[in-house]
Structure formats: structure tokens, C-alpha cells
């Protein structure tokens, strides 16, 4: 069976520490007959030595442009601006099929160079995505909401390890001011909407580590939205994959009513979409300024809507992404299964 040469490129973004294939999986692929080359990278969370130990060849950063014909270049986020023409097969998240900014230029680069895009977002089986970062997105989003609620998130955020994050979560809920000595703090009430999905599962896991009292809602629980029940939580995490407009979970009018709810993590980040289920917020927040406040000073509703949450836990995100991608790679040479589905999207958009 043909095994293509996999070329793990260095990520172009200076803040991106993730990698699509981790050394343990690279080793398995090499044992299975693949050749794996890994580029040097100043940002990757995993050291080059671990790849060398696994049997990978090493190449300079950005040398994929001269990779042998037939090599498949694997990355996570966007390619660098150069070169103009893309001649290889590339596996990454290109965000090129929904009219996104810069999408035409990406497709033009493939058109001119004769290369091929196998976008990870479109690797599907029976229409369902098979490689995604959802779990860790939900985990980090929920964790940041808890830390904010406890007064432990006051500035920007940057990539960290799960151990660091969990250690902060395990400090437990803050005691109310004026509480008597020896009193124990009540766990925060936290609601996850979309709790059965990938990010919802991750959110539930982080909230459990934090010791919160959990409520989980999925589709059946939001057919009729019990607004009073929703507002009686301290923390809400929105993990819903929503593709059409419907009754919002929280409307602008809900921001100014008396409510217990104070902190929202919008993992979904559909902030500019007509499917936005939290329409009082129309912009993402950032690593530098993760929190935006709505409502009055005495009754704020604080929202965290960071759209690159998995990059904040680069090692765990890389490991789970690699675990999902690696079993698909034996079908890559023949463009079978999910590869055929992704290739079909590319061909349709290249016309
Ligand atoms: N912020 C980030 O960094 C980041 C990273 C990854 C994914 N995401 C986004 O998070 C969202 C969820 O992704 P996922 O991988 O967890 O999706 P998923 O398909 O695994 O899960 C979505 C869940 O939402 C539920 N759901 C759908 N409509 C609902 C409704 N009206 N009420 C209640 N539940 C409903 C589904 O039943 C499912 O359980 C997507 O919009 C995705 O783009 C954001």
C-alpha cells in the first residue's frame, strides 16, 4: 500500500504552538511505512528532539516549498503569504470555502500552482467532521469563565499547560466577603448548553475539575428555553453548533434584568453570524482582553468569546488532534474516505 511522505511544516503564526502530528504518532506512521519530515519551529510546544527520537527527518523552517513532489504538507493554521503558487498537497484549516476574507487568494494560489487542498474542516464521515479541536476549546472556555468568576482572571491569557490550568481551577470557589472563619464556599452553579457535543464534553470536564455544581442542556432542553432557570446559574458556557437563527439563549433584554448569572463563555463564537444565540454580543474577545462586560456596573454580565481557545492548551490540543488525524492517514494516498469528501469540496470551489 502506498504511504506518502508527510511533511510537518512550521506554523506561520508566531503565537501558534500546536502541531498536527505528535512524536508518538509520527513513530507509529514511520513503523507503518510513511516517511515523516518535520520542520524546525521556534514556537512548537513539542521539542524537535522528540521527533528525531521518533525517527523523523528534520528540515529547516519553511522548506516545504522545496519538498519532493508528492509530499503532503501538513499544518494547522494558515500558510505564509509566500510563495504565490502552491504546488503541493496541503492538509490544514484553510477557511476558504465560506467566502471568508482572503479565501479567493488562497484558492488562486492552488489554482496557479496546480496543488491540492485537503482542508481538515471538511474531513467527514457521513457528513460528520472527524478531526476537530472541540474538547479542549470547551475545556479552556469553561475554565476561563470559572477563573473570571472567582476573580482570578484579571489580565490577558497565553498558552499554558493543563497542569497549570487545573491547579488554578482546583483552588475552589471563593468565599463570600464577610464569611465567618471556617465557612466553606458554595460551589458555583454552572450551565453548559450543547453539553453532549465535543466542546460541551470538554466544558463539563473543566467545570468538574473546578468543583462547580453542573447543569447540562442539549437540544431537547432548549426547545422551550426556561429563562429563569438559565439566569439562576452563576456561569453559562455556550457550546452549541448552531447554523440557523432561532430564539436566542440570552437576548439584549436579559442583560439588564436582576439575575444570578454573571459570567458567560461563548465557545461557539458565532458573534457575527445570523445564528448568534447570544446576540447582545457581536464581537469576539482576545487573548489580550479576554473579557467584555455588558449591563450596568452593579450588575455586569461578562462574556469571554475567544475564537482560538485550543491554542491556549497547545500540548493537549495537539495530542487529541493527532490522535484523530493519524488513523485517517493510511487512506490519504488513495484519497479515500474522509479525504475524498474533503477533495470534493476543493474541486467544487476551484472551478
Ligand atoms: N472558540 C473556539 O476556539 C472554538 C474551537 C472549536 C470549536 N468551536 C465552535 O464550538 C461550537 C461547537 O463545536 P463542537 O465541536 O462542540 O460541536 P458538536 O457538534 O460536537 O456539538 C454541538 C452540540 O450542540 C448541540 N446543540 C445544537 N443545537 C442546540 C440547541 N439549539 N440547544 C442545545 N444544544 C444544541 C448538539 O446536539 C451537540 O451536542 C462550534 O460552533 C464550533 O465552531 C469554537
From TrEMBL:
- Per UniProt, NAD(+) binds at 197-198, 218, 222, 267, 306-309
Specify the signal sequence span. Answer: none
Recite the UniProt keywords alphabetically: NAD, Oxidoreductase
Residue intervals of the Alanine dehydrogenase/pyridine nucleotide transhydrogenase N-terminal domain: 7-140
Give any single GO term for biological process: lysine biosynthetic process via aminoadipic acid
- Molecular function GO labels: saccharopine dehydrogenase (NAD+, L-lysine-forming) activity
- Cellular component aspect of the GO annotation: cytoplasm
- Matching Pfam families, A to Z? AlaDh_PNT_N
Tell me the active site: 77, 95
Under the heading SMART domains, the entry gives: AlaDh_PNT_N
What family, per the record?
Belongs to the AlaDH/PNT family.
Kindly provide the name given to this protein in its UniProt entry.
Saccharopine dehydrogenase
- Species annotation: Ornithinimicrobium pratense
**Taxonomic lineage from the root:** Bacteria, Bacillati, Actinomycetota, Actinomycetes, Micrococcales
